[in-house]
Amino acid sequence: MQELMRKHRRAILVFIIVVIGGPFVFLFGMPSIRKDSNVRQEEVATVGGVPISEAEYRQALDRMAQMMAQGKKERPNYKELAESGTTENVLKQLVDSALITLQEKNRNLTVEDQVLEKQIHDWKDFKDEKGNFNPAAFNEWVRNMKDWTSLYGRMREGISRQVYMNAMLSMGSRVSDREIDKELEADATKMKIRYVNIDMPVTPTDEEIQKQFDENQEQYRRPPTNTADYVAIPLIPEVPQKALDAVKEAREGADFGEVVKKYSDLTTPGSEDLGWQAVEESPASHLVPLYSLAVGQVSDPVSAPMGYVVYKLDEERTNADTGAREVHGRQIVVNAALTEEERAARQAKAELVSAKAKQTDLATAAQENGLLVLHATKFTTASMDIENVPKQDVPLFRSGISSQKDDQLFKPIRGRANIYVGKVVESVPGDIPPLEEVKARVSNDVISKTKQSDEYKKRLAELTDKIKAEVKNIDEIPVKFPELKAEVKQTEKPFTRKDMLYQQQIYLSSSDIYDRLGKAEPGTMAGPLQGMLGDKWFVQLAERIAPTEEDKAKWPEERKKLREQKAQRAAYELMADFTQDLRERMLEKVPVRRNEDAISRILGQGKYAPKDEEAAGGAKKAATAPAAPAPAAPPVAPSK
Description:
It is a single chain. This protein is α+β, with helices and mostly antiparallel strands. The chain is built from 25 helices and 15 strands. The strands form four sheets. The protein has a four-stranded antiparallel β-sheet with strand order 12-3-14-13. Strands 9-4-11-10 form a four-stranded antiparallel β-sheet. Helix 2 packs across helix 23 (555-586) and helix 6 (86-105) packs across helix 9. The longest helix is centred in the C-terminal third of the chain and has 32 residues, at 555-586. The chain starts with a helix and ends in a 22-residue tail after the last helix.
């Protein structure tokens, strides 16, 4: 059994951290600063005479529910925790904790009062914002504390347990310097590779294309055409006065270079020169005014990602090869941004408009907040331009407002230029286009489906095994297997095993590549490697670049972080083995008695289940847990 645990320790680690919620919370938890007299102190279980109280169980359940609720509107209630099996997992952890209590009590460790007092003074409850000890907060707590004996006892139990567990886990947290240095060297080693993607051609027949279309027509239906009403709360700051002054002086004939020096926030020499640019068909919104200028003209201030820009067009020409218009301009950049307070105020205004629109209607909400109701007509979820919506906000607007359901109407949509509050007021369903119009898309779907089939994967595996057996250099693949039309490429720049390669359209794990080639000689080929999209790749090491002195200069700090990470991971893994071993050795000898009636009462099950819908609705509220850590009772600190 122990060997099985070691083989699956990674799965156990994930289970303990994610599913159970971190055993250290249960095993090392300190007693509460406050004791809730309203919570019944009935025992839910005893383990060899060690009680597990209702308060402990509720606290553990609530802590788990709070962790599971992160990023969600509501945390799960006890019924939902029970349905997912979480309540049993929590109780199992508390049983493990009780077994550890039985073990560590045999050591009879004495915890002196001075140790308790030091622990108390270090608690964050008695620290001010700067982390300094706050006598007033401490003295107030001391005056209200009643049950000193119980608190001292629980404090000693907690510290004794922590010392015991630290001793048990210390061996597992040792990480050698040699191991750390190997990791650092591997992380800093850079590689350049040559690579080829092995993709067997698939050519769908007309019959296959027709069948795919006939059986999946709804998949090709055009998206609905929507009309929406909305208001926009701007996120763009007001135009700075110096941007207006710059426009005025430039248009009055001042030397533009001198105006740049006077007003631009770009200080790098030459940064005002935009160079020659081809006029794009769908340019970024802040470049449209530049492309619309005539030679010699100066633009109004234009909102851009960095603030506001003033353009002057100096020259234009037609590219002899492409026939495209090209422009050469200069810019004045004036930084401008909303403060955090201003952003928060505008978000709050959007929430206010949203709430009012839900109660009444959008027109009323807009009028009360000094806003105009705008309209966006005939747009779909694929539209690139939408009436009255800035281009940079189109993707967020079209998806956000089109996806709102009845319970989400008027939910604020935060773009780059504005926060939008609105709803779709009319939606015309799209029709199913004729096959010829979407034939390329249908053909691609047939190809994708074919490549996901077991038959295709089997043939691809046979092919890549054959390539591996017959090819020693990656350049031989296109020569020996011309039917693949494979193209050998090379990475543009070096990468490490921590880098992502998808931006170079290499859908491989860089860590997998390092494992195969990180210590190999240049020219070594590896493969087939499994791609992230289910495809196969061959790679060949073109160059390996050892860590530089600059890289090594960063190692002391990185070494410290890496050591902490490895020690923590090792401790969690050892904890998994330790608790499993403890359970296997002790549960045969130590009686575990469960109070099923108390557990059912806490969870609202059995005879304690709600009798009607109203009660069922009330059961959805999780019970309140006893509060957080509690100190023991040293002498009152002197006031400052």
